[in-house]
Amino acid sequence: MVDVQHWLSALPPGVIYLIVAGVIGVESMGVPLPGEIVLVSSALLAATGVVQPEWVAAAAATGAIVGDSIGYAVGRRGGRPLLERLGRRFPKHLGPAHLARAEQSFARHGVWAVFFGRFVALLRILAGPLAGALHVPYRRFLVANAAGGLVWAFGTTYLLFYLGRAAEHWLKDISWAGLVLAVLAGLVSTWWLRRRAKRLAPVEAPDRAEPVGATER
Protein backbone atom coordinates (compact mmCIF):
# COMPACT_ATOMS: atom_id res chain seq x y z
CA MET A 1 0.00 0.00 0.00
CA VAL A 2 2.91 2.34 0.72
CA ASP A 3 4.15 1.84 -2.85
CA VAL A 4 0.69 2.64 -4.24
CA GLN A 5 0.47 5.78 -2.11
CA HIS A 6 3.94 6.87 -3.20
CA TRP A 7 3.08 6.25 -6.86
CA LEU A 8 -0.20 8.16 -6.62
CA SER A 9 1.43 11.12 -4.87
CA ALA A 10 3.49 11.81 -8.01
CA LEU A 11 0.36 12.26 -10.14
CA PRO A 12 -1.86 15.34 -10.58
CA PRO A 13 -5.00 15.34 -8.41
CA GLY A 14 -7.33 14.99 -11.41
CA VAL A 15 -5.53 11.85 -12.54
CA ILE A 16 -5.74 10.39 -9.02
CA TYR A 17 -9.52 10.89 -8.98
CA LEU A 18 -9.82 9.15 -12.35
CA ILE A 19 -7.66 6.24 -11.17
CA VAL A 20 -9.77 5.85 -8.02
CA ALA A 21 -12.99 5.80 -10.04
CA GLY A 22 -11.54 3.54 -12.74
CA VAL A 23 -9.95 0.92 -10.50
CA ILE A 24 -12.97 0.67 -8.20
CA GLY A 25 -15.31 0.65 -11.19
CA VAL A 26 -13.50 -2.21 -12.95
CA GLU A 27 -13.25 -4.12 -9.67
CA SER A 28 -17.01 -3.73 -9.17
CA MET A 29 -17.61 -5.23 -12.62
CA GLY A 30 -16.12 -8.51 -11.38
CA VAL A 31 -12.40 -8.13 -12.12
CA PRO A 32 -10.14 -8.56 -9.06
CA LEU A 33 -8.29 -5.26 -8.66
CA PRO A 34 -6.97 -3.51 -5.51
CA GLY A 35 -9.82 -1.01 -5.31
CA GLU A 36 -9.78 -0.72 -1.54
CA ILE A 37 -6.01 -0.20 -1.47
CA VAL A 38 -6.32 2.61 -4.01
CA LEU A 39 -9.09 4.24 -1.97
CA VAL A 40 -7.19 3.94 1.31
CA SER A 41 -4.01 5.33 -0.25
CA SER A 42 -5.89 8.25 -1.80
CA ALA A 43 -7.69 9.02 1.47
CA LEU A 44 -4.35 9.14 3.29
CA LEU A 45 -3.02 11.45 0.58
CA ALA A 46 -6.02 13.68 1.24
CA ALA A 47 -4.95 13.88 4.88
CA THR A 48 -1.65 15.36 3.73
CA GLY A 49 -3.32 17.87 1.40
CA VAL A 50 -2.33 16.26 -1.91
CA VAL A 51 -5.98 15.73 -2.96
CA GLN A 52 -9.39 16.78 -1.68
CA PRO A 53 -11.30 14.17 0.38
CA GLU A 54 -14.69 15.04 -1.09
CA TRP A 55 -13.44 14.40 -4.61
CA VAL A 56 -11.77 11.13 -3.60
CA ALA A 57 -15.02 9.97 -2.00
CA ALA A 58 -17.11 11.13 -4.97
CA ALA A 59 -14.81 9.33 -7.42
CA ALA A 60 -14.92 6.14 -5.36
CA ALA A 61 -18.71 6.25 -5.03
CA THR A 62 -19.15 6.90 -8.76
CA GLY A 63 -16.84 4.05 -9.67
CA ALA A 64 -18.60 1.70 -7.26
CA ILE A 65 -22.14 2.52 -8.40
CA VAL A 66 -21.41 2.59 -12.14
CA GLY A 67 -19.13 -0.45 -11.99
CA ASP A 68 -21.67 -2.50 -10.05
CA SER A 69 -24.41 -1.52 -12.50
CA ILE A 70 -22.29 -2.62 -15.46
CA GLY A 71 -21.43 -5.82 -13.61
CA TYR A 72 -25.14 -6.37 -12.99
CA ALA A 73 -25.89 -5.99 -16.70
CA VAL A 74 -23.05 -8.34 -17.65
CA GLY A 75 -24.13 -10.90 -15.06
CA ARG A 76 -27.76 -10.75 -16.15
CA ARG A 77 -26.75 -11.30 -19.76
CA GLY A 78 -24.11 -13.98 -19.15
CA GLY A 79 -25.69 -15.73 -16.18
CA ARG A 80 -23.95 -18.29 -14.03
CA PRO A 81 -21.76 -19.61 -16.93
CA LEU A 82 -20.10 -16.19 -17.02
CA LEU A 83 -19.35 -16.37 -13.28
CA GLU A 84 -17.92 -19.85 -13.72
CA ARG A 85 -15.68 -18.62 -16.53
CA LEU A 86 -14.48 -15.79 -14.30
CA GLY A 87 -13.81 -18.37 -11.61
CA ARG A 88 -11.62 -20.38 -13.96
CA ARG A 89 -9.80 -17.23 -15.00
CA PHE A 90 -9.28 -15.96 -11.45
CA PRO A 91 -9.35 -19.12 -9.29
CA LYS A 92 -7.68 -17.44 -6.29
CA HIS A 93 -10.34 -14.76 -6.09
CA LEU A 94 -13.47 -16.09 -7.82
CA GLY A 95 -13.15 -19.86 -7.61
CA PRO A 96 -16.07 -22.25 -6.95
CA ALA A 97 -15.72 -21.88 -3.18
CA HIS A 98 -15.84 -18.09 -3.40
CA LEU A 99 -18.86 -18.20 -5.69
CA ALA A 100 -20.66 -20.61 -3.36
CA ARG A 101 -20.09 -18.33 -0.35
CA ALA A 102 -21.32 -15.32 -2.30
CA GLU A 103 -24.46 -17.17 -3.37
CA GLN A 104 -25.09 -18.19 0.26
CA SER A 105 -24.87 -14.55 1.29
CA PHE A 106 -27.43 -13.57 -1.36
CA ALA A 107 -29.71 -16.42 -0.36
CA ARG A 108 -29.52 -15.43 3.31
CA HIS A 109 -29.61 -11.63 3.09
CA GLY A 110 -31.23 -10.93 -0.27
CA VAL A 111 -30.65 -7.45 -1.65
CA TRP A 112 -28.93 -6.41 1.61
CA ALA A 113 -26.01 -8.56 0.46
CA VAL A 114 -25.40 -5.87 -2.17
CA PHE A 115 -25.29 -3.15 0.50
CA PHE A 116 -23.10 -4.99 2.99
CA GLY A 117 -21.13 -6.66 0.19
CA ARG A 118 -19.49 -3.31 -0.52
CA PHE A 119 -17.61 -3.72 2.78
CA VAL A 120 -16.48 -7.32 2.08
CA ALA A 121 -13.66 -7.98 -0.38
CA LEU A 122 -15.28 -11.02 -2.03
CA LEU A 123 -18.78 -9.61 -2.36
CA ARG A 124 -17.45 -6.24 -3.48
CA ILE A 125 -16.19 -7.96 -6.63
CA LEU A 126 -19.10 -10.36 -7.16
CA ALA A 127 -22.13 -8.36 -5.98
CA GLY A 128 -22.98 -6.79 -9.33
CA PRO A 129 -22.48 -9.79 -11.64
CA LEU A 130 -24.03 -12.18 -9.13
CA ALA A 131 -27.11 -10.00 -8.59
CA GLY A 132 -27.59 -9.85 -12.35
CA ALA A 133 -27.11 -13.60 -12.78
CA LEU A 134 -29.65 -14.26 -10.01
CA HIS A 135 -32.12 -11.81 -11.64
CA VAL A 136 -32.42 -9.53 -8.62
CA PRO A 137 -34.84 -6.70 -9.61
CA TYR A 138 -32.68 -3.83 -10.84
CA ARG A 139 -34.49 -1.09 -8.90
CA ARG A 140 -33.92 -2.88 -5.61
CA PHE A 141 -30.35 -3.60 -6.65
CA LEU A 142 -29.72 0.02 -7.59
CA VAL A 143 -30.99 1.34 -4.24
CA ALA A 144 -28.86 -1.08 -2.26
CA ASN A 145 -25.90 -0.56 -4.58
CA ALA A 146 -26.05 3.24 -4.40
CA ALA A 147 -26.51 3.26 -0.62
CA GLY A 148 -23.63 0.83 -0.08
CA GLY A 149 -21.36 2.66 -2.50
CA LEU A 150 -21.97 6.06 -0.93
CA VAL A 151 -21.59 4.87 2.66
CA TRP A 152 -18.47 2.84 1.85
CA ALA A 153 -16.80 5.54 -0.24
CA PHE A 154 -17.52 8.57 1.95
CA GLY A 155 -17.25 6.67 5.23
CA THR A 156 -13.88 5.11 4.38
CA THR A 157 -12.47 8.30 2.90
CA TYR A 158 -13.41 10.63 5.74
CA LEU A 159 -12.58 8.13 8.46
CA LEU A 160 -9.04 7.73 7.11
CA PHE A 161 -8.82 11.44 6.34
CA TYR A 162 -9.53 12.47 9.94
CA LEU A 163 -7.45 9.64 11.37
CA GLY A 164 -4.56 10.70 9.14
CA ARG A 165 -4.91 14.32 10.25
CA ALA A 166 -5.06 13.30 13.90
CA ALA A 167 -2.11 10.95 13.55
CA GLU A 168 -0.05 13.60 11.78
CA HIS A 169 -0.77 16.12 14.55
CA TRP A 170 -0.19 13.52 17.26
CA LEU A 171 3.07 12.29 15.77
CA LYS A 172 4.22 15.89 15.33
CA ASP A 173 3.59 16.56 19.02
CA ILE A 174 5.23 13.29 19.98
CA SER A 175 8.32 14.13 17.93
CA TRP A 176 8.76 17.44 19.75
CA ALA A 177 8.04 15.82 23.10
CA GLY A 178 10.50 13.08 22.30
CA LEU A 179 13.16 15.62 21.44
CA VAL A 180 12.57 17.52 24.68
CA LEU A 181 12.60 14.32 26.72
CA ALA A 182 15.76 13.15 25.01
CA VAL A 183 17.53 16.45 25.80
CA LEU A 184 16.35 16.38 29.41
CA ALA A 185 17.37 12.75 29.79
CA GLY A 186 20.79 13.57 28.40
CA LEU A 187 21.26 16.50 30.78
CA VAL A 188 20.05 14.56 33.82
CA SER A 189 22.17 11.51 33.03
CA THR A 190 25.24 13.67 32.44
CA TRP A 191 24.68 15.51 35.73
CA TRP A 192 24.16 12.23 37.62
CA LEU A 193 27.29 10.61 36.15
CA ARG A 194 29.41 13.63 36.97
CA ARG A 195 28.09 13.74 40.53
CA ARG A 196 28.67 10.02 40.92
CA ALA A 197 32.20 10.33 39.62
CA LYS A 198 32.99 13.15 42.10
CA ARG A 199 31.73 11.06 45.03
CA LEU A 200 33.74 8.00 44.05
CA ALA A 201 36.97 9.81 43.25
CA PRO A 202 38.13 10.41 46.89
CA VAL A 203 37.41 6.78 47.80
CA GLU A 204 39.14 5.29 44.82
CA ALA A 205 42.27 7.47 45.06
CA PRO A 206 43.77 5.78 48.17
CA ASP A 207 43.05 2.35 46.68
CA ARG A 208 44.99 3.21 43.57
CA ALA A 209 47.88 4.59 45.68
CA GLU A 210 48.12 1.47 47.89
CA PRO A 211 50.45 -1.21 46.52
CA VAL A 212 48.87 -4.36 45.21
CA GLY A 213 48.80 -7.06 47.91
CA ALA A 214 49.26 -4.62 50.82
CA THR A 215 45.99 -5.74 52.42
CA GLU A 216 47.11 -9.37 52.34
CA ARG A 217 49.82 -8.72 54.86
From TrEMBL:
It comes from the Bacteria. The keyword Chloroplast does not apply. InterPro entries: DedA-like, VTT_dom. Keywords: Cell membrane, Membrane, Transmembrane, Transmembrane helix. It is found in: Cell membrane. One of its GO terms (cellular component) is plasma membrane. Pfam families: VTT_dom. Residues 41-159 form the VTT domain. The chain crosses the membrane at residues 7-26, 111-134, 141-162, 174-193. It is a multi-pass membrane protein. Belongs to the DedA family. This is Membrane protein DedA, SNARE-associated domain. The lineage of its organism: Bacteria, Bacillati, Actinomycetota, Actinomycetes, Micromonosporales.
